[in-house]
Amino acid sequence: MSENTLRGKQIVLGVTGSIAAYKAVSLLRTLAQEGADVSVVMTSAATQFVTPLTFETLSGRPVRQGLFADAESMPHLQGTQEADLVLVAPATANCLTKCALGLADDLLSTLLLAARCPIVMAPAMDGEMWNHPALVAHVRTLRERGVVVLEPAEGPLASGLVGTGRLPAERTIVDAVYARLSHQPARAAACLGPGRQADRRDWVGQRVLVSAGPTREPIDAVRFITNASSGKMGYAVAAAAAERGAEVVLVSGPTALPSPPNVQTISALTAEDMYQALDARFAWATVLIMTAAVGDFRPRHPVPTKMKKHEWNGMPLDLERTPDILESLSRKRTHQVLVGFAAESEDLLANGRKKLHQKNLDVIVVNRITGDHSAFGSETNEAILLPRDGEPRHLDRLPKRVLADRLLDMVQDRCVPSHVPLAQPKSEGIRRIH
Ligand code: CTP
What we know:
Layout: E1 10-15, H1 23-33, E2 37-42, H2 52-59, E3 85-91, H3 93-101, H4 107-114, E4 119-123, H5 127-131, H6 133-144, E5 148-149, E6 153-156, E7 162-166, H7 170-182, H8 184-187, E8 207-212, E9 217-218, E10 224-225, H9 232-243, E11 247-252, E12 263-267, H10 271-282, E13 287-290, E14 297-299, H11 309-312, E15 319-321, H12 325-332, E16 337-344, H13 348-358, E17 363-368, E18 380-381, E19 383-387, E20 393-394, E21 398-399, H14 400-412
Parallel strand pairs: 1-2, 1-3, 3-4, 4-5, 8-11, 8-13, 11-12, 13-16, 16-17
Antiparallel strand pairs: 6-7, 9-10, 14-15, 17-19, 18-21, 19-20
Helix pairs in contact: 1-2, 3-6, 7-14, 9-14
Bound molecules: cytidine-5'-triphosphate (CTP).
């Protein structure tokens, strides 16, 4: 696979009977645009929402629907033997349940049971259904078998209620496909049933502290200084580490992102909040990955009320430095592996090296934050991985979730297996947001 396309990948797209089935049309187009060869399998319920003709026209292939609909002798095996990945989007509660139980009463469920390739499922359903203990148990079963079940998104649902159950964003689904395929050699078959290779869990035993997002430094009750960080890189790192078996705590500045699965997410508003939250957990961690764009300056005297605009006239902002979190924590390190992210607009390698040594890091990820391919806010990232003890590795533009895995691969070589007894993280004054 070229570093940032799905060229040559055979993907079976399963579409089940959810109102979100129409979103699979755009998903099919995106996968095809990124080079994948996509064939579609629909359940009969899905055809109530979107016609097979739509998918046939866009994929240029017949849509397969019934176990007995065509003349193929083994329709459930057709296409799946060569497939690189099966993606079910949207995946209903019924589909997830059948897959967990190994039921095979239609073409898609039979195909999922027969698949020898990785499976990614993007749920869409009512919030009550997603949170039902039965479904929670089935999703756990699927994940334990190595099936990637994405977290549904929050927002307005077809029922008219607001909750967790919307089909994840298209980019999240496509990133999950990239991530799963990028691990294919090591993770071989994320399949159902005995005798098949389990998912890669090569970070079990590591305790990973990740920071993400911007910070906010108040000027008055409503105004603040911040930056353009979206938090996507840090959330991708946290998700990747958790998926690979690590215990993960994510300390996040204000972002619009949902907490990744199996990650404890702590909110922190200012640089000082973030420092306190990370410092309280640093002894516990075996690895610290600082992706956060921590504000370097804050108003020395923030005003607790809303200032009137006439009060602003000609008033200079008196700023002071915030703590350099990474530098402070690196002075306290005992066993931890430390990773920083450098946001640079010029002399990327030289500036990255300077920060690597100044902050006493093991690895620094150097990002360009200007131009068309700025890492800020983007779904992708073009980065240099710069280890203290090795050669820089220049990566092509990659989805952040894939970059996260590449970074973990590099950091892993520097981690000692965790023998340090679990220190209890302090939690006073720190609010869990998910
Ligand atoms: N960082 C930190 N505390 C700060 C500022 C930055 O811990 N107050 C961390 C970031 O999370 C990142 C690394 O230091 O991992 C480098 O951040 P960057 O913004 O690139 O550099 P700065 O240290 O702020 O230096 P400069 O602004 O001069 O580029």
